Amino acid sequence: MLDWENVFATRSKRMRASEIRELLKLLERPDIISFAGGIPDPALFPHDEFQAAYKDILGGPEANAALQYSISEGYKPLRTWLVGELAKIGIPCTEDNVFITSGSQQALDYLGKLFLSPGDTALVTAPTYLGALQAFNAYEPNYDTLALKGNRTPQSYAQTAQKAGGQVKFAYLSADFSNPTGETVDRAGREKLLAHADELDIPVIEDAAYQYLRYNGDAIPPILALDIARNGGDIEKTRTIYCGSFSKTLAPGLRVGYVVASKTVIRKLVLMKQAADLHSSTINQIAIQHVAVHGFDAQVAKLHGVYKHRRDRMLEALAKYMPEGVHWTKPEGGMFVWVTLPEGMDGASLLAASIDSEKVAFVPGKAFFADGTGANTLRLSYSCANDEMIDEGIKRLGRLIRAHTKSAAA
């Protein structure tokens, strides 16, 4: 019998199951109030619009093209629409700067493959998006914590990477309503990141999955927009790679995302796609373009109304039910609230007790830390929870945390 573990590549040893994907199974249990899944509410998907789009596509002149192989760069009318949308947020570019991927997760995988050699260092925030760590781990990097506050210098990143036997290859972060914290990097932090990237001479990977989900506060220009502006409006001179997605605004199941960058980067990504899956789903790209052209702004406005209400409801419930010593973020958008428990309390242990006694699910925060810290943190998602679920679920969770706090003090 073949010993499969003996023939797997060394990079496969760092592949781990996503704790979040495993927790999604809890959504199937009717007795569980789940704040675990960082997924859009399916009731808000534009069902009618997609039904009409697919009917028009398959019943019209695009039918053959929709079912045929296509170019690796992506469906050009979709890229053209994106060029117009990107200009609205300060990112002037052409179709040649836009590359369509099978979800932004594929973009992260490609970028890890493109830049990381074993032993190189990726700079990531603490905490950071778990899916990014999963994508990068296959390429055997080291991680260092990207600190945009405090006195950390570019030289210190370089020295740490050299001691680990490699070099710093890129900085990765989600600047708007990040997964998992819901926090936003201010303009000064974005400019500081670009300055550090200049000194280290590395690219910046900007994960903009939640870019369109701002419910209040003033919008901050994307990092790529700031990078273009300081380079005289020329995207070809920039070092920022912008990763966008339709998963949070239209439909995640269609798996359509995009990368915006200089043509030099795009050309490399196209070659990688040709070797991996040739191109993203043709018919899904066409359907996305049909729906986006006729109703993207209205769809985003609908999401804002619902998600803002749920965020507000969760923040009110946390203030009402959480005991002293528990802290949480107050995001201006996105889908998440990040909770910090009293020191010494463990989120994973709390989850086991919560599911058993309170029937409430969340994601323990430790999984989001590349360095294995963060045991006393957890992530709550409000995107799929109604008012009753939020109020009752946070009430139960607060009761459990209060009991654990008293037990630890005894």
Structure explained in plain terms:
By secondary structure, the chain is α/β, with parallel strands linked by helices. The chain has two domains: 4-46 and 297-405, Aspartate Aminotransferase, domain 1 (Alpha-Beta Complex); 47-295, Aspartate Aminotransferase, domain 2 (3-Layer(aba) Sandwich). It is 44% helix and 12% strand. It is built from 14 helices and 13 strands. The strands form three sheets. It has a seven-stranded mixed beta sheet with strand order 2-8-7-6-5-3-4, sandwiched between helices. It has a four-stranded antiparallel beta sheet with strand order 9-10-13-12. Helix 8 (154-163) packs across helix 9, helix 12 (282-321) packs across helix 14 and helix 13 packs across helix 14 (387-409). It is globular, with a radius of gyration of 22 Å. It starts with a helix and ends with a helix. Belongs to the class-I pyridoxal-phosphate-dependent aminotransferase family.
State the major sheet: 7 strands, mixed
The run of helices and strands is HHEHHHEHEHEHEHEHEEHHEEHEEEH
What is the H level of CATH, i.e. the homologous superfamily of the largest domain? Type I PLP-dependent aspartate aminotransferase-like (Major domain)
The helix/strand class is alpha/beta
Q: Which oligomerization state do the chains in this entry correspond to?
A: single chain
Proportion of residues in helical segments: 40-55%
CATH class of the largest domain: Alpha Beta
User: How many independent structural domains?
Assistant: 2
Strand order of the largest sheet: 2-8-7-6-5-3-4
CATH fold assignment of the largest domain: Aspartate Aminotransferase, domain 2
**How many distinct beta strands?**
13
